């Protein structure tokens, strides 16, 4: 399943098959597909990530988020939207802040390359059997 964060992109978990020298590994790994206004990204390079069509994409659940921090869903939605607008503005004005997602990873821009770096703990939480293969792929 994937989660669409409007104005920013989609987080999803994909299964990937890797042929090793002695065996075939199938690992689950996180991916992020950027979906921002392209005018923000004119000078930036970012990896093209395609989420397979069979992955179900759900919208960000503002009600669930509101339960985790005791704020009303409308206020949570407003905070998320304003944060994404601020990040877009910073990218447009050539500022390059890192955007941290707690327990997931960091969306950062280095040398005009915008990419999502997932925390190893996030990857390890998705893949219990072949953690090292998933870490290397991600």
Automatic annotation (TrEMBL):
GO terms for cellular component: microtubule organizing center. Residues 57-128 form the CCDC81 HU domain. InterPro entries: CCD81, CCDC81_HU_dom_2. Transmembrane segments: none annotated. It comes from the Eukaryota. Pfam families: HU-CCDC81_euk_2 (PF18289). This is CCD81 protein.
């Amino acid at each position: 399943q994937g989660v669409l964060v409007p104005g920013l992109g989609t987080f999803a978990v994909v299964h990937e098959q890797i042929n090793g020298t002695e065996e075939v590994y199938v690992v689950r790994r996180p991916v992020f597909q950027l979906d921002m206004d392209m005018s923000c990204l004119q000078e930036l390079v970012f990896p093209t990530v395609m989420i397979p069509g069979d992955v179900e994409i759900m919208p960000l659940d503002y009600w669930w988020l509101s339960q985790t921090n005791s704020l009303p869903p409308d206020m949570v939605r407003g905070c998320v939207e304003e944060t994404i607008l601020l990040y877009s503005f910073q990218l447009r004005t050539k500022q390059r802040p890192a955007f941290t997602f707690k327990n997931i990873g960091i969306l950062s821009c280095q040398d005009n390359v915008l990419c999502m770096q997932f925390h190893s703990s996030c990857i390890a939480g998705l893949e219990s059997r072949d953690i090292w293969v998933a870490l290397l792929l991600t």
